[in-house]
Amino acid sequence: MGGQVEDAAWLKKKDDFGHINVAELDVVLKGVNLALKWGLQEIEVLTDSDTVCGWMKSLLTPEKRVGTKGASEMIVKWRLGILYELMDVCSLKLCVYFVPSEKNKADVLTSVKKGWLGVPQEEEDEAKLCCVGVPSVRELHQMYHMGVDRTLFVARKVDPAITREKVRQVVRQCDRCQSINPAPSVHESGKIRVDRIGRG
């Protein structure tokens, strides 16, 4: 393994709901960008994410397709595409190695005491002033009439203290969601303007 030129740790924000594998891939991109600023051409990537290691190896082996599915599929492919372009344009030579979590030195850097990450008291008090009440949850729900889970997810983006019970109460009181056929628009019946139906 090569030498270190700079140590860096990027802590995940408290309200970051992104998938951990996507976050790990973001860190790889940040690390490669940092290495480019140092003018390095040969970069060794050490990761404790088996998934990210697999994605990177697929990127380095053109015959192998990147295997990813799920909600973040396009995000992953986009970021891997950026990495591929960086390798091509900057003539980078990337090597990727899997390091188990117990041997990963970077995990020690990011495993800090929660007290060190604490929010100052003034900021905490200010945050309490913008709580989302039942009317605001109702407004969020009425935008798209999503179920309890998705409305709760959106509401917690605004205020993490929102409870599932509060969202459930709003969904139960929603006439559109409680009706049997909640489709917002109905197609008008009409006539087909052709003489006969079928191939001619």
Main attributes of the structure:
single chain; 200 residues; mainly alpha; 9 helices; 2 strands; flat
Strand content: 5-15%
Helix content: 40-55%
Supply the number of structural domains: 2
Strand adjacency order, main sheet = 1-2
Stretches where pLDDT falls below 50 for ≥5 residues? 123-129
CA-atom Rg in angstroms:
25 Å
The topology string of helices and strands comes to: HEHHEHHHHHH
Query: Which structural category do the helix and sheet elements fall into?
Result: mainly alpha
Could you tell me the number of beta strands? 2
Shape assignment: flat
The largest pleated sheet is described as:
2 strands, parallel
SS element count, helices: 9
Task: Kindly report the average pLDDT value.
Answer: 76
End-to-end separation: 72 Å
Protein name: RNase H type-1 domain-containing protein
GO molecular function, one term: nucleic acid binding
Question: Describe it for me?
Answer:
The protein has helices at 20-37, 50-60, 73-89, 105-110, 121-128, 134-144, 148-158, 164-172, 175-178, and strands spanning 42-47, 93-98. The chain has two domains: 20-110, no CATH class; 121-172, no CATH class. Mean pLDDT is 76; it is low at 123-129. Helix content is 48%, strand content 6%. Helix 2 (50-60) crosses helix 3 (73-89) and helix 6 packs across helix 7 (148-158). Strands 1-2 form a two-stranded parallel ribbon. The termini are far apart. The protein has 200 residues and is mainly alpha-helical. It has nine helices and two strands, in the order H-E-H-H-E-H-H-H-H-H-H. 11% of the residues are buried. GO terms for molecular function: nucleic acid binding. This is RNase H type-1 domain-containing protein. It comes from Petrolisthes cinctipes.
